[in-house]
């Protein structure tokens, strides 16, 4: 009995230690100071929260559960509930950095989401905190240019050419990221910066399959400080590929609906032919029997 | 002559009057019809909808009627048989990442009305007899390009679609279980008893893409969540995985998306760089599910 008590105390102690260790592991994770102070260039509105919710449900729910429900996956260290105080006590910049860079079992979402999409997720997480007031950067005297983009493909060097303008003036040093839109997600083609002519070149793999004409859906984002622009285009850029149905042609598992007409005719002619021959013989025998009876 | 003229005139007048009366009747009914169709006048609010043949069209809100097609068995059967044109769905399972969280199994069982002992997807513990180690292997229907189950079905209940998915229609299934015997991957399961929540599902129209409601005495199998794919969503198991085990995508695009991180990568590169393999390739079944081998943990 005494021994049992001892075991219980040891187990309890171990559990407490694990819990403390886990909490420590989580609180240990500090974003670098400059990232910590980073502020969202966007005002968190309902649209951002909605976009963030979609992204969260697709990419975060499996570990973090639904915010406010405390139904996160039991892992070590625990992923935690984003609506919890421990999460909400962080700065926006810290959340942004941690989602973007990941650590250990927390995946790195840098390649999956662009910066504005990451801010959407932060906006969604903040929507669970009633006391939250968004801190905005000082925008006085800052003019945000409105970018326009033109996309073309240089087939001689297999490069996507992105030209970035603002009021018809080329924009240098703009960060450009180009994606190919797939059925379930966007594939990063590459990132580049515009040169002094406002042009950025992104490598395109010539083996990338497109449709019959070689067209793919391309999405390009351009960002520089608070200026942002996004453009989507269905353009010729990939290898023309003919798409075949998985059931075309004949297979051992084909159904009779897919059988060629000559096979159907041969089949039915043979079957009816055999029946006809059998009946012909039976009738002939019957006639012989009749003739014999009559004779 | 005069009389004749008079008669002629009156006949002409009569015909004229008849003509006017006829024309006004036609015009009146046309106006009436116009009035009726006016109730369907465009409101100016346009929405984008996907047609049955997968075309995105813009229609006016006023022209929309509440959809009852989704409740129509005939429509669902036709849609389920045809599949999604231009697609060829594939799955890649990264065995190095599976930690037996079993979230995929739970998501699958709740979506497809399966009892806990029934699996469209099962996480198995595989033992390496040489290294004396083990790893976890999620095993689902391989959606073979040369499916033995389809060859043996005597009633065309199980079939392959143009997008590569092998489905089963439990409206046609006679429960002979030939397909269960023919499948080398043991991917199929049989409803020996009344399915889970069968009383609640009694009035639900059967959708073969979801294979719900399940029916006692019929075979059931993984459908690659064809109902989700129709809406551009990843399968239930793929999006439920917390460990980034599953990639899913379209082989025609050569792109697959990870269900956890949503990162989209080239299928050919992923397979080549990780020495991907398929299960029992010697049988010539040509599976649509690829496996990336488990790697020894560092240190």
Draw up the topology in text.
The complex is a heterodimer of chains A (295) and B (299).
Chain A (H helix, E strand, L loop, with lengths): L1 H26 L5 H4 L9 H14 L1 H4 L20 H4 L3 H10 L13 H12 L21 E7 L4 E8 L2 E2 L4 E7 L4 E8 L5 E5 L11 E10 L2 E10 L24 H34 L1
Antiparallel strand pairs in A: 1-2, 2-3, 2-6, 4-5, 4-7, 7-8
Helix pairs in contact in A: 3-7, 6-7
Chain B lengths: L1 H37 L7 E5 L5 E5 L12 H10 L6 E6 L8 H9 L10 E7 L4 E7 L8 H5 L5 E3 L5 E3 L9 H5 L6 E2 L28 E2 L5 H4 L6 H5 L5 E5 L4 E4 L5 E3 H7 L15 E4 L7
Parallel strand pairs in B: 3-13
Antiparallel strand pairs in B: 1-2, 3-10, 4-5, 6-7, 8-9, 10-11, 11-12
Could you please describe the fold and organization of this structure?
Chain A is an alpha+beta fold and 295 residues long. Among the domains of chain A are: 29-126, Cytochrome c-like domain (Cytochrome Bc1 Complex, Chain D, domain 2), CATH 1.10.760; 148-236, Sandwich (Immunoglobulin-like), CATH 2.60.40. Chain A contains eight helices and eight strands. In chain A, strand 2 (159-166) and strand 3 (169-170) form a beta hairpin. The longest helix of chain A has 34 residues, at 261-294. The mean pLDDT of chain A is 87. Helix content of chain B is 27%, strand content 19%. Chain B contains eight helices and 13 strands. Chain B has a five-stranded mixed sheet. Chain B is elongated and about 115 Å long. The model of chain B is unreliable at 32-40 (pLDDT under 50). Classes of the chains: A alpha+beta (295), B alpha+beta (299).
């Amino acid at each position: 009995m005494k021994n049992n008590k001892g075991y219980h105390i040891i187990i309890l102690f171990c559990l407490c230690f694990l819990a403390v260790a886990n909490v420590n592991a989580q609180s240990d994770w500090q974003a670098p100071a400059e990232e910590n102070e980073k502020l969202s260039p966007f005002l968190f509105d309902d649209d951002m929260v909605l976009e963030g919710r979609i992204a969260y449900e697709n990419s975060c729910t499996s570990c973090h559960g639904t915010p406010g429900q405390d139904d996160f996956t039991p892992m070590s260290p625990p992923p935690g509930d984003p609506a919890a105080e421990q999460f909400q006590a962080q700065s926006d910049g810290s959340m942004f950095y941690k989602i973007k860079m990941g650590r250990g079992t927390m995946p790195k979402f840098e390649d999956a989401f662009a910066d504005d999409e990451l801010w959407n997720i932060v906006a969604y997480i903040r929507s669970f905190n009633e006391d939250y007031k968004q801190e905005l950067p000082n925008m006085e005297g800052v003019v945000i240019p409105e970018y326009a983009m033109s996309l073309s493909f240089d087939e001689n060097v297999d490069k996507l050419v992105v030209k970035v303008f603002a009021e018809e003036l080329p924009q240098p040093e703009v960060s450009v990221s180009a994606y190919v839109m797939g059925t379930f997600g966007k594939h990063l083609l590459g990132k580049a910066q515009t040169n002094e002519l406002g042009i950025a070149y992104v490598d395109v793999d010539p083996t990338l399959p497109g449709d019959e004409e070689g067209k793919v859906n391309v999405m390009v984002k351009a960002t520089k400080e608070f200026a942002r622009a996004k453009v989507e285009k269905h353009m010729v850029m990939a290898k023309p590929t003919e798409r075949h149905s998985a059931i075309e042609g004949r297979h051992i598992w084909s159904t009779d609906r897919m059988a060629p007409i000559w096979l159907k005719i041969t089949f039915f002619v043979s079957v009816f032919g055999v029946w006809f021959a059998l009946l012909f013989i039976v009738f002939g025998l019957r006639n012989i029997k009749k003739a014999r009876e009559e004779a | 002559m005069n009389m004749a003229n008079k008669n002629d005139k009156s006949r002409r007048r009569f015909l004229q009057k008849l003509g006017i009366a006829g024309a006004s009747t036609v015009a009146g009914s046309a106006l009436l019809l116009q009035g009726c169709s006016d109730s369907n006048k465009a409101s100016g609010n346009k929405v984008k909808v996907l047609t049955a043949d997968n075309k995105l069209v813009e229609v006016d809100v006023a022209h929309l009627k509440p959809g009852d097609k989704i409740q129509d068995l005939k429509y669902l059967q036709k849609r389920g048989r045809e599949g999604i044109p231009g697609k060829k769905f594939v799955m890649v399972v990264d065995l190095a990442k599976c930690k037996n969280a079993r979230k995929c199994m739970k998501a699958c069982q709740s979506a497809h009305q399966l009892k806990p002992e029934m699996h469209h997807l099962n996480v198995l513990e595989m033992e390496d007899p040489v290294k004396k180690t083990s790893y976890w292997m999620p095993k689902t229907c391989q959606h073979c390009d040369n499916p033995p189950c389809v060859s043996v079905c005597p009633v065309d209940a199980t079939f392959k679609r143009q997008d590569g998915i092998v489905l089963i229609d439990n409206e046609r299934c006679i429960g002979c279980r030939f397909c269960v015997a023919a499948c080398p991957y043991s991917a199929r399961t049989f409803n020996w008893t009344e399915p889970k929540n069968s009383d609640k599902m009694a009035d639900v129209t059967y959708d073969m893409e979801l294979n719900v409601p399940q029916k006692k005495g019929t075979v059931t199998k993984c459908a690659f969540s064809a109902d989700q794919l129709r809406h551009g969503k990843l399968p239930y198991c793929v999006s439920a995985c917390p460990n980034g085990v599953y990639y899913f995508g379209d082989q025609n695009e050569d792109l697959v998306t990870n269900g956890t991180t949503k990162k989209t990568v080239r299928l050919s590169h992923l397979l080549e760089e990780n020495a991907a393999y398929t299960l029992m390739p010697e049988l010539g079944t040509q599976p649509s599910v690829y496996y990336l081998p488990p790697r020894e943990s560092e240190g």
